[in-house]
Amino acid sequence: MVRKVVRGFYAVAHAVKLCRPNVICAYPITPQTEIVENLAAMYANGELENCEYITAESEFGAASILVGASATGARTFTATCSQGLILMSEVLWNAAGMRLPIVMVIANRSLSAPLSIWNDHQDSMAMRDACIMQVYVENNQEAHDMIPQAYKIAENRDVMLPFMVCMDGYKLTHAYEPVDLLDQETVDKFLPPYDPPIKLTTKDPLTFGCYAPPHCYMEFRVVMQRAMERAKKVMEDVFEEWAGLTGRNWGGLIATDHMEDAEVAVVAMGSVVGLVRDVVEEMRKEGKKVGLVKIRSFRPFPVEDLRKALKDVERIVVFERAVSFGHEGPVAMELKSALFGHSDAKVYSFAVGLGGRDIPKQLVRKCIEKSEEIEPGFYFEGVKDFEEVIV
Amino acid sequence: MKFFFSSGHGACPGCALPIAVKNVLYALEGKCFVVNPTGCLEIISSQYDRSAWGVPYIHSVFENAAAVAAGIEAALKALGRKDEGHVVVFAGDGATADIGIGCLSGMFDRDHDVLYICLDNEAYQNTGNQQSGLTPPGSNTTTTPVGKLLPGKVGKKKDMVAFALAHGVKYVATASVAYPMDIRRKAKRAVEFEGAKYIQIHCPCVTGWGINSNETVKVAKLAVETALYPLVEYENGELVRVRKIKQRKPVEEYLKVQRRFRHLFKHPKGKEIIEMLQKIADENAKRFGLDE
């Protein structure tokens, strides 16, 4: 292992290489592009053995190519975000239903209109119900570490589902950070070659992607839900094994700070967690009983862990990086449904930093403090004074 | 003969699709991976627990068969399994020329070692005869219905052979279920070329075209004999073979036996359409040297 100051996209590309993928396919989209550019360079230099790198005609094509490749028994990788992710959406739902363990990195970016290339979580949230695992990372080391773990979880026979490693576009993908880069030996020891239980082969011809009339469709959906439920345990085991192997413990489906005696819990996902942690530490030093809950796995949703971690708190402040328009922030929605009947805590959901709007430390602190005075509900924070004009 | 596409599938009596599929699979001795987008063939053959396929088969979505095939080919290459078999797509005309044309262009452009076969029944027949880019002019479909004003489809049949040739596809051919031995020969010839291959097979649809179930081959033959569906073969961009026509028939003979064209003989604009179709046939005959 060697520590280097690298940018997020390189940390990801390097980890992907060490996982020995067989087919990499992508279409460029900001701010993901540098991930696949780095992989393309590795391919051009002959650093990727037994691997085909394909530049597709669209994200839709890229996802489709990986469906064919994965079904044939290849370990696959792609990266995308924003418009590219929702363009892939039809195929990704299909890949999940066919139980193909495609691993992808989402360089989280907002959705159009208006067009924005900057960061929030609206893109991956749009894939919430697709039966694709979603883990949000806080920094580039976690992104780097998550790649081999994603393959190991996705390819586990109890799971066999696609996996999205969600890392904030620009904020992480383009940030320079010191990263302990894995070596081939460590990854080889951790991640066995992909050996699917079934695949497309002329030696044993099987039919993939059948159609199911009403008398047999539901059972397919039942087993998908079961696989997601089993993925929780598989994730915990893999995370633990990783901590043992590398000495880096990122936690379980959630990670908590100061929650033992916390009266106020702050819940967040992704790169904003680092900032929230600073604020929580600051407030702790002032004697305030504040704790942090970092949600790592959004799908499967860590219902049991959250119930346990939040059972004694009075208030929960959620930082949202997306909106479920017509309702509220998606993280708070999930959280409240998990806590229903298990907690009387008041939930305050603050949408911040949409479309890359800056999230200053003072804003985070203001939201936490404000929750003492306002009604529970959904609020946009960091918004300018403006007048809505209806023409 | 081993069954690579077994009986018991759900095709209508007289359906042309199994004729095309069985002959291609027979020619390739079942050594192939089949990719099939959503459509008639998929619905009749791939119901859960009742698959008709004796070869590895995958259906993903409607518009991505060419890309899925490219992925299979890339995986076989990466995994050192290229000798396991050919990658073959069987796609309908809508999946090929309309909704899936982006993925098809990408696959052609990257020149994946894939045999792409378009089963051309000239409309979205699985959902009940809606017009596609390969529906010929004058055809009465549910989305180009005959009305007081309009005589069925206005516009032309998309030239997918030219589309394939423009991409530099090394082997491009048309075929017809009226000539099964020709289908076999073309499939065999196609896979001798490394890279993308395109064969478009004319497949009459009993329900959509409004023909009797025992007339599939007869109607398919008339399309060839009128020069409305010229059978051509290109290798490396050069026209190398055509099926010659002994005594070319007027297009009316092909049109009058099908319900989808019947209105042309009484609609005020029908004559104009028939003349246009005859002109297309004449041009085909001239361009490809079809008349013997």
Structural account:
The complex is a heterodimer of chains A (391) and B (292). Chain A is 39% helix and 20% strand. By secondary structure, chain A is an alpha/beta fold. Chain A has two domains: 2-246, Thiamin diphosphate (ThDP)-binding fold, Pyr/PP domains (Rossmann fold); 254-388, 3-Layer(aba) Sandwich (Rossmann fold), CATH 3.40.50. In chain A, the strands form three sheets. Chain A has a seven-stranded mixed β-sheet with strand order 3-2-4-5-7-6-13, sandwiched between helices. In chain A, helix 1 packs parallel to helix 6 (140-154). Chain A is globular. Chain A starts with a strand and ends in an 11-residue tail after the last strand. Chain B has helices spanning 17-27, 40-45, 65-78, 93-97, 101-110, 160-166, 180-190, 206-209, 216-225, 251-255, 270-288; strands spanning 32-35, 57-58, 86-92, 114-120, 171-176, 197-202, 232-235, 238-242. In chain B, a hairpin with a 2-residue loop joins strand 7 and strand 8 (238-242). Chain B has an eight-stranded mixed β-sheet, with helices on both faces. The model of chain B has no long low-confidence stretch (mean pLDDT 97). With 292 residues, chain B is an alpha/beta fold. Chain B has eleven helices and eight strands. Helix content of chain B is 35%, strand content 14%. Chain A binds chain B through residues 22-23, 25, 50-52, 54, 56-58, 60-62, 64-74, 90-91, 94, 98, 200-203, 205-213, 216, and chain B through 30-33, 35, 42-43, 46-49, 51, 53-61, 63-64, 67-81, 84-85, 102-103, 105-106, 109-110. Strand 9 (207-208) of chain A pairs parallel with strand 2 of chain B.
